[in-house]
Specification:
InterPro entries: GAP1-like_C, GAP1-M. This protein is an all-alpha fold. It has helices spanning about 5-10, 60-70, 85-90, 100-110, 120-130, 135-140, 145-155, 165-180, 195-215, 220-235, 240-250, 255-260, 335-345, 345-360, 365-370, 385-390, 400-415, 420-430, 440-450, 450-455, 460-470, 475-485, 495-510, 520-525, 535-550, 555-565, 570-580, 580-590, 590-600, 610-630, 630-645, 645-655, 660-675; strands spanning about 10-15, 25. Helix 7 (about 145-155) packs antiparallel against helix 8 (about 165-180), helix 10 crosses helix 13 and helix 11 packs across helix 14 (about 345-360). Residues about 260-325, about 660-675 and about 680-689 have low confidence and may be disordered.
Length: about 700
């Protein structure tokens, strides 16, 4: 029986003989009572038929019914239409509710942790965590909404309520996640009481191990969190670490990226060259403390043993930001990964070894993928040199100081390249991922490290490529070619040896070591090569030879060889050099040079049409304007030089320099313009008769 005050406040009653006169809003009556006709004031619901099938869909109505059947009407005293609040009161009072009402109660409690009465909050948490091993096995997944709500509630109350209160709820959430495939929570060490932890270990040992070993489980996500749960429960998983490490390495650096650095088509390609990775540049990592002063790489003389190893001090780990699979912290790192690596030496060793293998094969891809992983490689000195270089790569002091960065990368390896030559190959690919070393850098690498180390590391071809692909303005390339020929005298392929000989020859033209037969030597090295000479080398050789022939002094035999060759590319280079501004300046300043150019460009007429076209263009477009612009005294000095070489050349020069009809007319107009004070008309120097 309700108290009288409460009874008068009810808005419903289960029975009234005359329902139309009852003051309540909901009135029950028997079929035998006086019929009540529907009207404006009442609405009749006939409940004498069959009961409706299925559960009640309204969680609030179902909760009200359960409270009424549990004889707890006092819970209605402060009830509202909020099903979460009503369900929380019911659970705290021991009323059993269905899943959707429990989820609503959990959500309400999570949102009112600081404002709900302590007894109500404690009662809700205890009710939601009630049960044990049998319930965990019977309801492994729970309803999806309830599982999510319980996880949120646990996160809000953990640490606010005593562990004795929250531990059963934590156990229920963890068991639901492991057995039902949900998100595994990262519980703190004190979240479980010993009885709950022991019960969970008995229930979850098998599912935890099978989940960690399942190849279909995300190694960097769920598997790591299952491993964390196993650690919390004391479940031994050491035998699963090697296989998990392999899967984790494949997740961090996928197999298609970790097999090799894929070359990019185009830049720096040299026919017959070894594989030179040309991929996206490695992201610069912040400067490493103490990495400013990097020791010089010791020189190793040719022939000296490279087994001599000196340990290189390791750099400190660099911190970066980027993407790492799994849940990340503010720096972009997965805490579960770092925790697992720190707490499981077997996992750490196997993972670092797998990543080190990938780093040796594809250092650029590994460095890019692990730029933000913050793997504690630097905290475990010894071993994994390729991984250390990728993860601990410091930034260079200057953006274009690749040699400085190369030395710092070697320092990060923690081992001398003389002890492990493969370290040198990895360092070169990290520092020059998108281009070949410049001639000066390649020469320094060869000189400081020695040919034996490059031979052992397999990096000789990279230096050869650097020489052959050097642009024409790289003045150090010929000296590098000579050094390569000297240090690798018998092991260079014939085709590449010929290209290096041609490149070396471009450096000696114009010196005392140039010898004779320049044209034939250049053409012979190019045409006699076992494989096509790179275009960069051919262009450099033609340009150097043409400059030497134009600058003089030039033997007649070389001019004849040039004219007879009819080589279009070589003659084009000769024409370009003859039209160069330095040549025009010298023609105006040196009568002897002008005479020499006239002799050269008048030589060998009719030997080859291409030569005739080139020389006549130079005579008309370069030499004639320069000579016509000279004062009469300077032209006389040119004639004096030509007279000493032979009367025939002097006569040829005078005949060539005599103005034609158009030239004479231009001269008269120029004289008249000078007398009248007007500018003289321009003339291009071409004579027409």
């Amino acid at each position: 029986m309700l108290p009288r005050a409460a009874a008068h406040g009810l808005t419903f009653t289960t029975y009234a003989r005359r329902p139309e006169r009852a003051p309540q809003q909901l009135v029950g009556t028997l079929p035998s009572c006086a019929p009540c006709a529907p009207g404006d004031r009442v609405r009749v619901h006939d409940g004498t038929g069959a009961r409706p099938a299925g559960p009640v869909g309204d969680a609030w109505a179902d909760t009200c019914a359960r409270i009424w059947r549990a004889a707890r009407p006092e819970l209605f005293r402060d009830a509202t239409w909020d099903v979460g609040r009503l369900a929380a009161s019911a659970l705290a009072s021991g009323v059993a509710l269905r899943a959707d009402a429990r989820a609503a109660a959990a959500r309400w409690a999570a949102g009112h942790v600081t404002t709900a009465p302590g007894a109500t909050l404690t009662g809700v948490v205890e009710a939601l965590g009630a049960g044990g091993e049998e319930e965990w096995r019977a309801e492994p997944g729970h309803a999806g909404a309830e599982r999510a709500a319980l996880a949120v509630l646990l996160e809000r109350v953990d640490g606010r309520l005593p562990a004795a209160v929250t531990a059963p709820l934590a156990g229920r959430v963890l068991a639901s996640a492991v057995l039902g495939g949900g998100a595994v929570p990262a519980l703190r060490a004190g979240a479980l009481t010993p009885p709950v932890r022991d019960a969970l270990a008995r229930t979850l040992a098998g599912p935890l191990r099978s989940g960690i070993a399942d190849a279909g489980t995300d190694a960097a996500g769920r598997a790591l969190r299952l491993l964390g749960a196993a650690d919390l429960l004391g479940v031994d998983c050491q035998d699963l670490m090697p296989e998990l490490a392999g899967r984790l390495a494949g997740t961090l650096v996928p197999a298609e990226e970790g097999s090799s650095d894929t070359p990019a088509a185009g830049a720096g390609a040299v026919p017959g060259a070894g594989a030179v990775p040309e991929v996206a540049a490695v992201p610069e990592v912040g400067a490493v403390p103490g990495a400013g002063a990097v020791p010089e790489v010791g020189a190793v003389p040719d022939g000296e043993s490279t087994a001599e190893a000196a340990s290189v001090p390791a750099a400190e780990p660099a911190r970066g930001a980027g993407a790492v699979p799994g849940g990340k912290d503010a720096a972009g790192t997965d805490p579960a990964l770092l925790s697992a690596v720190e707490e499981h030496p077997a996992l750490r060793t196997a993972l670092f070894a797998a990543l080190d293998t990938r780093a040796a094969a594809a250092p650029v891809a590994v460095a890019r993928r692990l730029a933000a992983a913050r793997l504690p490689v630097g905290a475990h000195p010894g071993g994994f040199p390729h991984l250390r270089m990728c993860v601990l790569t410091p930034g260079a002091a200057a953006p274009d100081d690749r040699i400085g960065r190369f030395r710092a990368v070697l320092r990060a390896a923690g081992i001398s390249p003389h002890a492990d030559p493969a370290v040198l190959r990895t360092a070169l690919r990290l520092v020059w991922p998108d281009a070949l070393p410049a001639g000066a850098d390649a020469a320094l690498l060869l000189d400081e490290l020695g040919s034996d180390l490059h031979r052992a590391a397999g990096t000789r071809d990279l230096l050869v490529d650097a020489a052959l692909a050097a642009p024409p303005d790289d003045a150090d390339a010929p000296a590098l070619a000579a050094d390569l020929l000297r240090r690798f005298p018998a092991e260079l392929p014939p085709g590449r040896r010929s290209a290096l000989l041609l490149l070396e020859f471009t450096g000696v033209l114009g010196t005392g070591a140039e010898g004779e037969e320049w044209v034939e030597r250049v053409r012979g090295l190019r045409d006699g090569a076992a494989e096509p000479v790179p275009d960069t080398v051919t262009e450099r050789a033609y340009t150097a030879l043409a400059r030497r022939l134009v600058d003089g002094p030039t033997p007649d035999s070389e001019l004849y060889a040039l004219a007879r060759s009819g080589e279009s590319a070589l003659l084009s280079a000769y024409g370009r050099e003859g039209r160069a501004e330095r040549v025009r300046t010298r023609l105006r300043a040196s009568p002897s040079y002008a005479a020499a150019c006239f002799c050269a460009w008048s030589a060998c007429p009719g030997v080859h049409p291409a030569w005739d076209e080139t020389r006549t263009a130079l005579l008309a477009k370069v030499l004639r304007p320069a000579v016509r612009a000279l004062p009469a005294g300077e032209r006389a000095r040119i004639e004096e030089v030509l007279d000493r070489t032979g009367r025939g050349r002097l006569d040829a020069f005078r005949s060539w320099n005599r103005p034609g009809a158009l030239g004479r007319l231009a001269g008269r107009l120029a004289g008249r313009a000078r007398r009248d004070g007007r500018p003289a008309p321009e003339h291009d120097g071409t004579e027409r008769t």
